[in-house]
Amino acid sequence: MSRHRIALTMASGIASALLLAACGSSTDDSAGTGTGAATQAETSAPADAAASSAAGGTHMVSTGMLMAKQMSGMGSVVTDAKGWTLYRYDKDKASMSMCTGSCAQTWMPVMADGTPKAMGLKAKVGTITRDDGMKQVTLAGWPLYRYMGDTKAGEMNGEGKGGAWYAITPAGAKSAMSSGGSSASGSGSGSGATATMSGMPGM
Prior knowledge:
about 200 residues; four-stranded mixed sheet
């Protein structure tokens, strides 16, 4: 009788020990899984925030060259190194861009890529510092932009938009459509200044 009780007591002790060990292992696994999930969530959160910020920010482009290019019915206008038409905005003030926020998502400020060179231009190339600290390229003091509606190089879909946006000429003036194939342009500040292969002051 005594031996039977001893055997039962030993069996009960072993079962209890095994049960406690299983519970401890389960707790550790759960804790490890929770920590891993939390780490993964923390890692992915900043990436999502950065993407959202970039998507909602100003659209910008850059160029290392400004070039004069003949356009049918428009005379000579200025393009970037890849042939995209560049525009000026009548509401801009002297060396100051007035196109910010949603405007700058449609009319993309042209940023300086290093020290852009100029070919065939008659006005001085320069830069201004935007509110965000970026350096925007100017011609004859006019900040330069590309139009989101131009889907390929050589297009001028932004010409005359809102009565304030015009392709810019090599003299810094605004281009105007003419039936004779030449441009009838208004005067631009700084016209006649030497710009061939000119550097970008302020860089």
